[in-house]
Amino acid sequence: MKKFLKINEADNVAVALQPLVAGEKISVAGHDITIQEDIDNGHKFALSNIRVGENVIKYGYPIGHAISEIVAGAWVHTHNLKTNLKDDLDYTYNKVNTPTVFFPHSDLKVQGYLRKNGEMGIRNELWIVPTVGCVNGQAQAIVDRVKKELDISHIDDVRVYTHNYGCSQLGNDHQNTQKALAGLVKHPNAGGVLVLGLGCENNQISDFKKVLGEWNDERVKFLVAQEVEDEVEIGFEIMSGLVDVMRVDKRQPLPLSLLKVGLKCGGSDGFSGITANPLVGKFSDWLIAQCGTSVLTEVPEMFGAETILMDRACSVEVFDETVNLINDFKGYFRKFDQPIYENPSPGNKKGGITTLEEKSLGCVQKGGVSDVVDVLQYAQPIKYKGLNLLQAPGNDLVAASSLAISGCQIVLFTTGRGTPFGSFVPTMKISTNTDLFKHKANWIDFNAGTLLEDENMSELLERFIKFFIETTDGKKLKHEITGFKELAIFKTGVTL
User: Are 212 and 185 within 8 A, CB to CB?
Assistant: First the structure.
């Protein structure tokens, strides 16, 4: 295994793949360098002397500037490197011809559930969706009784997705909650849904139905708790009927083109942009070559790398939408008098990421090199096949939920630090390094750290596609086994 990696020919830093000790001598491109201090794996060290104010280059792009003199072999991190990001930028559409990556047509099929509207589910679950948080307890009581009294062996999971919203919200917050819950109700991974309301909330079921649009009457049922004597008893009867309806559901071979896959990273480290994110990017390009769809979000973690995505916009209109996506999110920070570039997190920094540019340059690699075909607003359903961008924050729970709300059947979640959570769709944890994969085997589903151990990308991608298809065909991920599933709705405004 190599001890360090210089990612791009233009870089003036390299990444330690193993811990390096002070005094150790290494050779880079024929030049001998003495390591000046102990450097942990995932962290950067200088390949040449870097003057104060000079840019530090990684991935072939500036990730900030030196705030003190840095000598060759020295550790490069928060003590001597600072972001270049400030204020808004003026953007120009410079369409680039991205490198052609040829992926042949695959004969693989997904063993999925074909829904009446032509969508595909990769799970067949029974859900209760509360219109308001006030009925969370009643919904859970109904689910508990279903699990205890009914034969649900043909159903992958029975679950209530609790939340705190649906009342005392105004404007966009109220609308976003309605749109988010509508995305949940109509999600193809659900074979049956009971929408449970209270009766006096802002999110009245009569109003919610207008947001919901069309739905399958056989699979989606409604109940208002204040209108019946015993909502748990009536809810149980409705769920019993849905359990029976779902007995006819069977997996069948369906095309890869029906897949919609969310792309997310969290708890990133210095290897995220070297192993797991590039793997997911290759997979995204492969899926798009099969006429499938991938969705990239975490808008604040595009800051500093946004022009890479803008230059891949398929049209001027999509370029303009991408500019608005970036600038509107910066405006969201300013609205609350918050600094735009206060990122990365403490865990990111401990893992070797210093600036937002560095984090973003690693983050956007999950989108591969495909053209951007559309920009989605929060909770907007996916319209076009190909690579989409989605308006959502970087927060892991909110972003992963947002991807699922827009229609993704599964989320690919890369991590260098690890996390146990899952969204309401299968959320595959992909480790950036083997140590994490071994240490948190109860969290991590797939290890991309073998790229640091001389496995090549083609071999890794082939293994990953096989594992991915096994997952879509029904193999449970770690968070599904533990039952850690969450719904997190994006809130931006006041609560009454």
Answer: yes
357, 340 Cβ separation under 8 angstroms: no
Identity at 145, one-letter amino acid code = R
Q: Which of 3.40.50, 3.30.390, 2.60.40, 3.30.9 is the CATH number of 125-248?
A: 3.40.50
CA 394 to each of CA 47, 122, 361: distance values in angstroms, whole numbers, following the listed order: 32, 25, 14
Q: Name the pLDDT band for 407 (thresholds 50, 70, 90).
A: very high
pLDDT by residue (tens digit) across 441-494?
999 999 999 999 989 999 999 999 999 999 999 999 999 999 999 999 999 888
Quote the distance between the C-alpha of residue 491 and its chain's center: 18
Beta-bridge partners for 39: 20
Burial of 111 (0-12, 13-18, 19+ CB in 10 A): middle
State the Cα angle at 60 between 55 and 63, rounded to 5°. Answer: 40
Q: Where are the domains of the chain?
A: 4-82, 125-248, 256-482
- Indicate the burial class of 248 (C-beta count within 10 angstroms; 0-12, 13-18, 19 or more): exposed
Query: At the top level of CATH, which class does the domain 4-82 belong to?
Result: mainly beta
Q: Write out the H or E segment, with its range, that includes residue 398.
A: helix 396-405
Is pTM beyond 0.90? Reply is yes
β-bridge mates for residue 332, sequence order:
none
Pinpoint the alpha helices (H) of 80-212: 136-149, 171-185, 205-212
Cβ neighbourhood burial of 240 (10 Å; 0-12, 13-18, 19+): middle
Closest by Cα among 422, 445, 447, 402 to 123:
422
Question: Hey, what amino acid is at 125?
Answer: E
C-alpha 178/C-alpha 74 separation (Å) is 52
CA separation for the pair 484, 161 (Å, rounded): 11
Residue 57: CB atoms within 10 A of its CB come to 18
Beta strands in 102-234 (DSSP E): 109-114, 120-121, 125-130, 157-160, 190-197, 220-224
Q: Give every CB contact of residue 200 below 8 A, 6+ residues apart in sequence.
A: 226
3-state secondary structure 410-471: EEEEEECCCCCCCCCCCEEEEECCHHHHHHCCCCCCEECHHHHHCCCHHHHHHHHHHHHHHH
pLDDT per residue as tens digits for the range 137-179? 999 999 999 999 999 999 999 999 999 999 999 999 999 999 9
Instruction: Give the Cβ contact number of residue 3 at 10 Å.
Output: 14
The candidate with the shortest Cα–Cα distance to 35, out of 14, 51, 52, 54, is: 14
